[in-house]
Structures are given as C-alpha cells and as structure tokens.
Design goal:
mainly beta; 9 strands
Length: about 160
C-alpha cells in the first residue's frame, strides 16, 4: 500500500508541476466524503501541505489506516447468542444498518433481551473508526423480530 501511495503522489506532483500533493486512498465502497480509510500520502515541502510553495525540500509523508489491515474482524459471529443491553433501558431494532430515525425502528425492546446474531454490517468511516452494526433475531410476545442494533448494545 505504501509503495502505491508513494508512486501516485510523486507521479502526480511531477505531472501537475504542483507545489504540494495529498492523496487519500479508500477501499471500494467506503465513504469518500470523509477522511481516508486506507491511507494518505503527502508530497510537499517539509512533508506538510501547509508548506506548499515554500523553498523547503520536498518530503513524502505516508499514513496507513490502522484498521485497514484488520477489516472484517467482527466482535461477534453470526449465530452467536447475545444479550442486548444499554443504560437507557430500551433498544431500537432498525430496518437498516445505516438508518436509525424513528421511521426505521421496527420495535423497541427492553434492555436485557436475549437475541441471536444473524448478520454483521461493517463500514470504515475514517482511518481509525469502523462502524459495526449487528442484525439480530429475537422473540417478543410470541412474535419473531429481525433488525439491526448498534455494536455497543451487544453483550
């Protein structure tokens, strides 16, 4: 990864005759509207974008996201039995792992409810933050429910 970032930064710097270049790298499907999720290359005077146009020697600074190489390591596996818990006393099951407004909540369940993990949703939001949500299946009042919960609601 570092080599690819370095080559891209140097090539772009020379091609564009730029004062400085910063390249963000993302994994396919990641949200590119936030900070990099894979890596970052800065090719600039002193290795700092703020020095663009100065007479300092051009340096390369590389950052590779800590979570990039450990992606997909979920805390809980599909089929795991868990207890849903939070300090608010109730947990909303959402229809979607990406949406949490009232329109998306299937049912509110009490903290302490037992459930089984059915699926996992992971999204690298920034270089150091990965969003994890779990789809769980549970029974309440004789009915079966299937919905998404936050990672921090799982025990």
């Amino acid at each position: 990864m570092e080599q690819a970032l370095e080559e891209a930064a140097v090539e772009l710097y020379e091609e564009m005759n730029a004062d400085a270049v910063v390249i963000f790298a993302y994994q396919e499907g990641d949200n590119h509207m936030v900070s990099f999720t894979v890596g970052k290359a800065t090719y600039a005077p002193g290795g700092n974008w703020a020095n663009a146009g100065s007479s300092r020697e051009v340096e390369l600074r590389l950052e590779v996201a800590e979570g990039y190489f450990s992606r997909g390591d979920s805390v809980n596996d599909s089929g795991s039995d868990v207890t849903l818990h939070n300090d608010r006393g109730k947990i909303g099951l959402s229809l979607s792992p990406e949406n949490w407004g009232d329109d998306w909540i299937i049912i509110w369940i009490p903290s302490g409810t037992k459930a089984s993990i059915v699926d996992t949703y992971e999204a690298q939001l920034t270089a150091s933050h990965q969003l994890v949500r779990y789809r769980v299946r549970l029974e309440k009042g004789g009915e079966e429910y299937d919905g998404w919960v936050h990672e921090w609601d799982i025990r």
